[in-house]
Amino acid sequence: MHKILFVCHGNICRSPMAEFVMKDLVSKAGLDSEFYIESAATSTEEIGNGVYPPARRKLAEHGIGCAGKTARQITAADYRRFDLLIGMDSWNIRNMRAICGGDDEGKIKMLMDYTDRPGDVADPWYTGNFEATWRDVLEGCTALLALFKQL
Question: What's the domain range around 75?
């Protein structure tokens, strides 16, 4: 079983989009039993809040639901629970390493590093451009799933 945790600052936009896009891709590939996927935040600002409405609408445009998802913060225990902890940007990575006490096993990665366009996933919180975030998340998750299919 592949256990993946997607992480962003608040766990209301990018990381839940990645969580539910990846779940959708995995399901369409018939690989549900091979993956366990969640998302979390590095901050406490949005704990308990649902997915941000524009992010929820963008997922819904593509037939992907996210009902029941509420923001939670990543913990040091998550480092032991998950095989991969995937951040959306370099700030997330820095904060994830601090919360997890480092990255001795090399589990902390950036989503876009699995693509031909390494770097940050577009942050819609500041730009309002959820389409750009959708494209980044879909490209990153598609590339990540392709990597697992090769294993």
Answer: 2-150
Is residue 117 within 8 A of residue 36, CB to CB? The reply is no
Q: How many domains does the chain have?
A: 1
Predicted confidence (pLDDT) per residue in 5-27, tens digit: 999 999 999 999 999 999 999 99
The string of DSSP letters for 116-128 reads SS-SPPP-HHHH-
DSSP string, 34-70: GEEEEEEESSSTTTT-B--HHHHHHHHHTT---TT-B
The helix or strand, by DSSP H or E, that contains position 108, with its residue range, turns out to be strand 108-110
The answer to whether the beta carbons of residues 114 and 18 sit under 8 Å apart is no
CATH code for the domain in which residue 41 is found:
3.40.50.2300
Rounded CA separation 12/33 (Å): 26
pTM of the model: 0.97
CA distance 80 to 60: 32
The residues assigned a catalytic role are: 8, 14, 123
pLDDT digits (tens, 9 = 90+) for 43-97: 999 999 999 999 999 999 999 999 999 999 999 999 999 999 999 999 999 999 9
